[in-house]
């Protein structure tokens, strides 16, 4: 299974986006957290900034939309060149229709689940998505502690994917660090988002490499 490292720029210096993006050139994606202060109690950035990040990033952009009404807003992120667009199941009206729209705009389609959102309703629809994001903290803020209670959900999801012939990635986001990444990998995750772990490290590039080798086991 591909091991994919997607550092979150939420914890970077937003006054130097280009320089901060350059530090993660050794990663697979740049994870960009879009928050609208409705779906989550925090506000970050929107489409005009994401368009500039797509242009400046040395790696493809993995957009995580923590927004209300993703059916209305998410396709524009795919059209802006994000390689992967993930929206929340709790916010979407028609997740399958939206995933199809994202794919037809050329992006990978991701479905995100808050820690308390069950994965079971989506297990018969796995082929409609390229990635399922199991949030390992409540979405909204960086720097929170990894919730071990989400591990069984990751395992149930990975087992369900194995019963299909779909190549669906399982992403984890929240509290991923050298201390937790192996637990998430052992449970069945293969895409790892890390914000504070990467951007609070002395050497962000070395931290990406360290996380990758721990995840590879
Ligand atoms: C939180 C965001 C995360 C955040 C993770 O809602 O979705 O991507 O940046 O930050 P850390 O890795 O610090 O938990
Ligand atoms: Zn995120």
TrEMBL record:
Recorded catalytic reaction(s): these are: D-ribulose 5-phosphate = D-xylulose 5-phosphate
The record describes how the cofactor is bound as:
Binds 1 divalent metal cation per subunit.
Q: Which InterPro entries match?
A: Aldolase_TIM, Ribul_P_3_epim, Ribul_P_3_epim-like, RibuloseP-bd_barrel
Q: Which Gene3D superfamilies match?
A: Aldolase class I (3.20.20.70)
User: For substrate, which residues are the binding ones?
Assistant: 8, 64, 140-143, 173-175, 195-196
Q: What EC identifiers does the entry list?
A: 5.1.3.1
Q: Say which domain of life the source belongs to.
A: Bacteria
Spell out the catalytic residues: 33 (proton acceptor), 173 (proton donor)
Q: Which Pfam families does the protein's record reference?
A: Ribul_P_3_epim
Gene Ontology MF terms: D-ribulose-phosphate 3-epimerase activity
**Biological pathway:** Carbohydrate degradation
Q: Which residues bind a divalent metal cation?
A: 31, 33, 64, 173
Task: Look up the record and name the cofactor or cofactors this protein needs.
Answer: Mn(2+); a divalent metal cation; Zn(2+); Fe(2+)
What keywords would UniProt list here? Carbohydrate metabolism, Isomerase, Metal-binding
Statement: the UniProt record of this protein carries the keyword Metal-binding: yes
Give yes or no: UniProt keyword Metal-binding: yes
**Role this protein plays:** Catalyzes the reversible epimerization of D-ribulose 5-phosphate to D-xylulose 5-phosphate.
**According to its UniProt record, which protein family does this protein belong to?**
Belongs to the ribulose-phosphate 3-epimerase family.
- PANTHER family registered for this protein in UniProt: RIBULOSE-5-PHOSPHATE-3-EPIMERASE
Its name, as the record gives it, is Ribulose-phosphate 3-epimerase
Organism, by scientific name, is: Georgenia faecalis
